[in-house]
Write a structure and sequence with these properties.
alpha/beta, seven-stranded mixed β-sheet, four-stranded antiparallel β-sheet, 15 strands, binds adenosine-5'-triphosphate, AAA+_ATPase
Length: 487
């Protein structure tokens, strides 16, 4: 009876108007303000909703007892979220924020090209009115950044490679990807510790350098050239870099790219926070045969605009300028926070344009195994620390390691073979190192001898030429009767 009476006395319009008025009065006197962040914004997914969910899942102060657990595709860990009407209190720069998760049934399915879920989900953020500016200017950005970081940490790294002949996959993407599970880290990488910490500090500065790059007007990217003999750990270093920074890897197979514009398109489809790798750059495109023309042309307009072809391998017409634009030009700045890594076994074969200052920011020489690197390999493969080995043995190893010029790959082979018997592994390695050092010495001596013989022959030839020229001159002068010149 009351309800009927109420409905008759208060028609719907009046009821809505009074609720609106009540809300207004409530808001007027309340010291809080509220923000709704719904899962679907119109028909599009609201990025902020996903970010908040991820961000809050990293917080331990959830009051509810029922949590929703999820594991995303390609993710190696679980994330949990708030259930319906659960609350969480967060603190940002001394300001308290109250988050509530709401789930309501969608009233009626409105017409949409995309089917909408039956439930309407969202978060309500409650904060004090006086903190509104702070929250809106920095808190939401902070949440987005944090969520991206969590997503990257939880998700498997991906290793991309460009499809054959630039073909596109079913999603129209030129890159194919697989989860990247390379276990190499800077801890397992055997190289000089000083050089290693230099590289790590450089990477850290780069990853934290957003403000620096913005302030100096530089594109947020960095180039590394890794060079050295095969088996010294260039690929392992790239994997360690990716694992250290949590970046994806784009392994660019240049021989599969036909033109400069294809190269540009590939670049456009790479994401931020990634390492773009071109391995064995000296073999990828013909950089040697081009040298003659490059000397005169690579700074010429044709080369600069990409028409001067340097590739002489079939239909491949990538130019040096195309490659340089890829790393350096305007296109290299689409997206940000990207690292370019080139590797080569023969740095001397590379064009000076690629090595010029500013092109590749850091040249890293991956050398034969040194003594400190050997100690890292002992720890990795045999679990032996320096103190576990006799001093005399260590001295012998230290004396012979540089002369042996063995790569970490060669040494790890010896250690893997005997890893069950640690002492035997070390003594066999010592024998292998000594043999190699001896061989190197013999080869060195032979080379020196052949150089000496060649030098002697050259000197002899030069002397003969000088004598012949002298005799000819003398003959000419005596024919002309030039006394002064004869003397
Ligand atoms: N510096 C290193 N530290 C640890 N392991 C190494 C190192 N160098 C090589 N290895 C081992 O040797 C193997 C081959 O190394 P890697 O492929 O990284 O060498 P590379 O220099 O890239 O060789 P290439 O020039 O032939 O591609 C790796 O599986 C790794 O286990």
């Amino acid at each position: 009876f009351c309800q009927t009476l109420l409905h008759t006395v208060f028609p719907p319009e009046l009821r809505f108007a009074s609720i609106k008025l009540f809300n207004k009065i409530f808001n007027w006197f309340s010291s809080y303000c509220y923000f709704d962040i719904t899962e679907i914004d119109g028909v599009n997914t609201n990025e902020l909703y996903n970010a908040v969910q991820l961000y809050l899942s990293s917080s331990a102060r959830i009051t509810g007892t029922r949590l929703s657990l999820t594991r995303a595709l390609n993710s190696s860990s679980f994330t949990f979220g708030l259930s319906n009407n659960d609350c969480i209190i967060d603190n940002f720069n001394g300001v308290t924020a109250w988050w509530e998760h709401f789930v309501t049934q969608r009233q009626s399915q409105t017409f949409s090209w995309r089917p909408l879920p039956d439930e309407k989900r969202g978060f309500t953020l409650k904060i004090e009115k006086k903190n509104k500016t702070l929250i809106l200017t920095s808190y939401l950005d902070y949440i987005m950044d944090k969520a991206n970081e969590i997503r990257r940490r939880n998700q498997d790294r991906l290793l991309y490679t460009n499809s054959r002949g630039g073909s596109l996959d079913s999603r129209g993407h030129p890159w194919e990807s697989v989860p990247f599970k390379h276990p190499s880290t800077f801890d397992t990488l055997a190289m000089d510790p000083v050089k290693k910490s230099e590289v790590m500090a450089d990477l850290k500065d780069f990853a934290d350098g957003k403000m620096f790059y913005q302030k100096t007007g530089r594109a947020w990217k960095r180039g590394y050239l890794l060079y050295g003999p095969p088996g010294t750990g260039k690929s392992s270093m790239i994997a360690a870099m990716a694992n250290y920074l949590g970046y994806d890897i784009y392994d660019l197979e240049l021989t599969e790219v036909n033109t400069n514009s294809e190269l540009r398109k590939l670049l456009m489809k790479t994401t931020s926070k990634s390492i773009i790798v071109i391995e064995d750059i000296d073999c990828s495109i013909n950089l040697t045969n081009r040298k003659k023309s490059t000397r005169t042309h690579y700074d010429s307009p044709e080369m600069r605009n990409g028409s001067g072809s340097i590739g002489e391998d079939g239909g491949n017409s990538i130019t040096l300028s195309g490659l340089l634009n890829f790393t350096d030009g305007l296109w290299s700045c689409c997206g940000s926070e990207r690292i370019f890594v080139f590797t080569t076994n023969h740095i001397e074969k590379l064009d000076p344009a690629l090595l010029r200052c500013g092109r590749m920011d850091m040249h890293i020489f991956m050398s034969y195994c040194s003594y400190p690197a050997l100690l890292i390999l002992f720890k990795n493969y045999l679990g032996l620390e320096k103190d576990d080995l006799e001093e005399g043995l260590l001295k012998e190893l230290e004396d012979v390691i540089d002369k042996a010029q063995m790569t970490p790959a060669d040494i790890s082979e010896v250690l893997i073979k005997n890893r069950r018997e640690k002492q035997k592994a070390v003594s066999e390695l010592l024998v292998a190192l000594k043999n190699r050092a001896e061989k190197n010495q013999i080869v060195g001596l032979r080379e020196k001898n052949s150089v000496n013989v060649e030098e002697e022959e050259q000197e002899k030839r030069a002397l003969e030429t000088t004598t012949e020229e002298g005799c000819e001159l003398l003959e000419k002068c005596s024919n002309g009767g030039d006394e002064e010149k004869i003397n």
